[in-house]
């Protein structure tokens, strides 16, 4: 039996947006399994806890049978190796993303030459989305229904009222 081809899609997902979901769903058509790797994210101050980010991500992708959600901390290539993934999927929204991703992929390749990075271009409609902007718009009372899944929107609203 051949081994399933596993790809990871790492990020902070604070929260997961429709832009992320689009990348995951497209990756799920290309690979046997896609593991969304939710970073503990010591590099960023997050609005949602790790458990909340995992919960939202699981709910958003509940309809994709070959997508799993895991957490990780430390180097992303170490996590990839620990689950037998040889491919890392990243979304590209702009040339600025490309510059950054190119550097990240180069460093990851030096650290783990057998792990490849695959870039998927983000759909035009999602190009303006980032988790930070979604949080900002929501915090200031704007409608973010067009940027996140209904279950994520519900989660964000519940969490906002719990914080008040
Ligand atoms: N649609 C919409 N938004 C998108 C997107 C898409 N397709 N792709 C990315 N974004 C957004 C993200 O939400 C994020 O927004 P934010 O900055 O407002 O939170 C932003 O674009 C940047 O995304 P990304 O580069 O994926 O950052 P991240 O913080 O979500 O994840 C890690 C970065 C965790 C993958 C990276 O820091 C990492 O691998 N860390 C582990 C440590 C490590 O191995 N370091 C060495 C790397 S060489």
How would you summarize the topology of this molecule?
Blueprint: E1 6-11, H1 18-30, E2 33-39, H2 50-60, E3 67-72, H3 76-82, E4 87-92, H4 95-111, E5 116-121, H5 131-139, H6 150-163
Parallel strand pairs: 1-2, 1-4, 2-3, 4-5
Bound molecules: coenzyme A.
Coenzyme A binds at residues 10-12, 14, 17, 19-20, 23, 39, 43-44, 75-76, 91, 93, 104, 107-108, 122, 126, 129-132.
State mean pLDDT (0 to 100 scale). 95
> Number of helix segments?
6
* Anisotropy-based shape: globular
Return the CATH class.
Answer: Alpha Beta
Compressed to H and E, one letter per element, the order equals: EHEHEHEHEHH
Radius of gyration: 16 Å
Provide a descriptive summary of the structure in words.
It is a single chain. This protein has a single domain, classed as HUPs (Rossmann fold). The protein has six helices and five strands, in the order βαβαβαβαβαα. The chain has helices spanning 18-30, 50-60, 76-82, 95-111, 131-139, 150-163, and strands at 6-11, 33-39, 67-72, 87-92, 116-121. Coenzyme A binds at residues 10-12, 14, 17, 19-20, 23, 39, 43-44, 75-76, 91, 93, 104, 107-108, 122, 126, 129-132.
